[in-house]
Amino acid sequence: MSKAPRNPHDQSMIAGVMDDKSSKAPRAKGRRKSEPAASLRHLVVVLGDQLDRDSAAFDGFDAEKDLVWMCEAFEESTLVAVSRPRIAIFLAAMRHFRAELESAGLRVMYHDLGDACRSIAETLSVDCKVLAPEKIIVVEPGEWRLRQELRVKFGDRLDERQDRHFICS
Questions:
Q1: pTM score
Q2: Could you report how far apart the first and last alpha carbons of the chain are, in Å?
Q3: pLDDT category, 71, cuts 50, 70, 90?
């Protein structure tokens, strides 16, 4: 008998992200109640191909006021034909990066595949309604479709930063 997927937007899964630095929310259990949403300055979105602590997304990061957000979205693994080993390596890298950030004292909200997140933009939109960050920071996505979705959904709240990994963009 298969287990039903978790609802990634359940309030109890999001609770605790704002006050527990060691939280692996939304997948962790037994978290404390969250602080008021107004205490979140920046929600820093880290995409799976942007796993770099020196990324422009972390410029000015304040561990007390900001939160890192990551998501293993089903849609990102299915839009283009990709081998299962590549997906496994990609997700493993994301999980290792999350662990690295947490061990450095950064708060991370991480949605894994078990959270049944269909798309990055959709999941981020729902989380932003609950967390109410002042700004959503993201390094410009390499994929045009995702870039446009984020721009449309978040408008002026989106702080899109230049990707420093490339000489040209």
A1: 0.78
A2: 48
A3: very high
